[in-house]
Amino acid sequence: MQGDKMFKSFRERRVDRATRLKYQETFLSKEDFVFPLFIVSGRRRKESIQSMKNIYRMSVDLAIEEVESLKEKGLKSILIFGVPDKKGVELAYDDEGIVQNAVREIKSAVKDITVITDVCLCSYNPTGHCHVGDNDKTCEILAKVALSHARAGADIVAPSDMMDGRVYYIRKLLDENGFSTPILSYAAKFASNLYGPFREAADSTPAYGDRKSYQMNYANSFEALEEIEEDIKEGALMVMIKPAMSYLDVIHKAKEKFKVPLYAYNVSGEYAMVNYLIDSGLAKEDLIYEILICIKRAGADKIVSYFTPYILEKIDEYQSI
Question: Domain for residue 164, yes or no?
Fold first, then answer.
């Protein structure tokens, strides 16, 4: 009989939307999200990316318009990638380069936006790789790139190359030049198969081989914690785990162990897969919210996501009665 039941009723917490929200443990906030931007040279230039719905390569003037529009909806942070018209590693640390000029213009035009810059060579390197062959030589170049971004006014520099010791090199050169710019290290960036659409967007597909000799083995999680610990020792104030969806266990372990801000990158392949399911009628748009809240639930403090414009628009709808 009903009065004699010996089990706890969980369904009572789920009877309707209002009750489910009352018992909900994890919520998203607009401040959680970082929007990636692919910047190209010129003016009034906007190029579609075939594999990434509603994501574009844009000149900085159009990027400013995009950021201003999203800021009105609650955007707080952006991550800038430069996509040069020609290759050349030296262009990555040119004070008049794409990223450097974009930082100056965005910081001048849009107030109260945190500008994070990706520090890597893949889009500039003719080989498409994140290194120039030698680990330490690459680190020296990456430090010059980070310094040029700091000079331009970047709020945070984010090395994503996965060279050994690059955080040390960057922190040392920044300090020597009087910059206290924080480092957000892609400390656990896995050699994932989910980066394909990004490589189209950033024109960074390797001309030969793959990146498994420097990006992390996707079978390992404890090694990721070693990488994170080392980067923190070298001077990273924040760390990134990339990708996010397939590495929720790593996000959780890192959050349990380290007391630094933890970013997770909801990468291009994840974005493309989810859009495919939705556009094919195999999933509802609710899948976007589900995935983002799972990343937050796992322990991410900030989420870099191409779904940022969508969630800024819809978050209140999802989290209110």
Answer: yes
